[in-house]
Every structure is written in C-alpha cells, then in structure tokens.
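Methods — Computational structure assignment.
A single polypeptide chain was analysed. Its primary sequence is given first, followed by the predicted tertiary structure written as structure tokens.
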Amino acid sequence: MTRPETTRLVMKFGGTSMGDLERIRRAARIIAAEAAKGKQISVVVSAMAGKTNELVAWTDGAGPAAPELKNGGLPLSDDEYDVVVASGEQVTSGLLALTLRNMGLNARSWMGWQIPILTDDAHGRARIEDVPGDVLGAAVDAGQIAVVPGFQGVTRDGRITTLGRGGSDTSAVAVAAALECPCDIYTDVDGVYTTDPRIESRARRLEKVSYEEMLEMASLGAKVLQTRSVELAMAKQVPVRVLSSFIEPDENGNLPENAGTLICDEDEIVEKRIVSGVTMSRDEARITLLGLADRTDAPADVFTRLAEANVNVDMIVQSQARTEGAVNLTFTTGRRDAQRAAEMMTAAKAEIGFEELRIDADVAKISVIGVGMRSHAGVAQTMFRALADKGVKFQAISTSEIKISVLIEDAYSELAVRALHSAYGLDAL
C-alpha cells in the first residue's frame, strides 16, 4: 500500500525528551525546524520522566475502593486511577504549547477527549478503537501545531482512559494513521541498533528495519518502541522513524544525513540482512511442573487456567519424568506474572495432578531476529555453535519465521549477546 504524498507529520517526544523546561525548549526548536519546512504538524508527548511513577504511587497511597462499593457493582477505582495518571501528559502538552507560542508559533493543546481518541473501557490498559481525524486534520492544515497528550484516550461514554506503559508511542501512531501521514518518534537514542550498545560497544545503528523485525525486537526485549505501536503501524502502514531528541537540526533546519531508523514495509528494504539484531530480555521466569500426570488433556488444563488468569506464556517444553506415567512440563512467563501463576498452579495442584512446582527467575531470553531467515539455511547452526563455543547451555527454544529465541542462565546473558552479535557479523554492518 502506497500512502499519498502529504505535508502532514506527527512528531512524538518521550519522557526523557520532556524531562524539564530546557528539554521542552529543545523539542520546540526541533518542531519549529519542521514547521519552517512547511509541514503541518501534530505533536504527541509523554509525561516528564518519572512523573507517571509518582502519580501511580499517589493512587496506591489513596488505597482501593471499599468492599461495599465493589459489592454494589461499582468499578474498582481503575477509572479514577486513569484520571490521576493521565495528568502527567496533560502538563507537558500545555508546557510545550506555551513554549511554542513563546517562539511565535501558533500552537494549541488537544486533550484525548477533544480529538477524540476513542478507546474501550479497560482502564489502565485500554486499547484504541478509533481516532476520527477530521477536526484535528483541519486544524493542522490551517497552520496550527496541535500538541496531543499521549497515553490517554476516552471511552464512548466520556471517561478518561490510559493505554498502559509506553502507550504514548501507540497514541502517536494512531494519530498518524488518522491523519494518513508519517510518524517521527524522538527518544533518548538515535535509532534502532543491532543490539543494546550498553552491552556491545560495536553495535550498529540500522538505517531501515521492517515492521515484522521491529515487532519481534520490541516483544523480545528491545525497549525502543512499545509492541502495540509497532503492531498498529504495520496494520495501518504508517512509516515510523526513530530519532534522537538530543540531536538538533542545523541552521538550515536539517538533521544529519540518514539520521535515525526508518521502520517500514519489508519491500522497501533493498538489501535484506539474514539477521538484523540480537535482543535480550531479563523479564523472564521459568516454571516447571514435575511429575505431571501424562494425560492428553493435562497440558490443556494447565494452559487454560493460565489463559483465564491473563498469564502470557512463551516457551513450552515437555519431557519424560522419572516417574512412570508422568511428564515434566516447563514454560516461561514474565517475572511479574510468575508468582501469580505459581500460586494458582499450587492451589489447583490436586485437580491438575502434579508432584512438585519449581520456579526460577534467574533466566534470560536471548533472540536473533531477521527477515533473511526465511530464505537462508544455517541460522540456527550459527547460533548454537556460537553459544557452545562460549560454554552457554540453553534450557528452552522457541522459533518463528524470522526469529530464534533461547532461554539461558541470566549470568551468561551479556556474554551470549556479544557472542551472537559477532557470529552474525553485525559489528561489521
């Protein structure tokens, strides 16, 4: 799908870019440089770094709703939680609009309910259902710089919602989809790298990454973009560029040549790499059910219970147990979900039918990702040889068309990342 030419542009600035008034002024100068090129601009902003955590702590301090309210069918105060935590983005949108006006630019803040950004009613983790772009589009086409708070929306009956952590990325892509234009996301890094530069100093910035690769990277530990924002960009074919808010345009309003990383359709990438990146996630825990009854419906029973409790499961391994007529079932989940999953499994131990449960949080998931895997053999062999040469043992494996993930001991995680980065030649890009 080829999007029509447009002078509209959505720009998004994250929490570190909005960290204080001086950083807000820097963001305003970047916006002004784009406006000087004749762009019709909407800006989506996050709360100041650390502000959302502070607001969440305040809601925790206020405490939950009284039991009698819950029994009366009223919500558990999640709707009021959203009212509080959404205020951080409201502050930065107003401050940025004031700063732009101080520079002589026609700017106005637009709250989520004024556009509106319509969501479902899952407070604290709402999903965007629709963003009518007519009113906002008319405003920016008339020369107004529209400043929109990210992370927030509104239900169809008028209640404020929030989209979950990292939701401002999703807000920005949703607004860009509504306005049928590209989206530039400014953050504290200057693009998407082959791996985390803090782990591997020879990591290289990628000029282009496909939507599918970025989706895998985001879900497997890369923290550049929120997963849902990449899903939405791929579904709506929104070109997304990741840029640093700490690199300002020159006197002509231009950024360095080939700045940032463009996230786009695979067809737009001429030279497809076999592997584009190596990611690491330490937000993992391994749960093993020892001596699980070897019934055909036993795994279905386990994973049905986990699904009903909204526990996401990733890697799954079943092996023969020492006890005759039993198996061992191992699966991984996020660390935050692991204790809840373990408690639920233990409570249903007799019904499920297993002998012992073990939980291990000292694990990490290492993944290699690249669209070139579809057409090249030997990717797995290279991975396992590189790990073996470093003495790294893996505990579980999961694959897709464009990624291979292994679970290893956390102590070996950074060593594994560096070994794989070198094995696939990513330091030579």
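Note: The longest strand covers residues 285-293.
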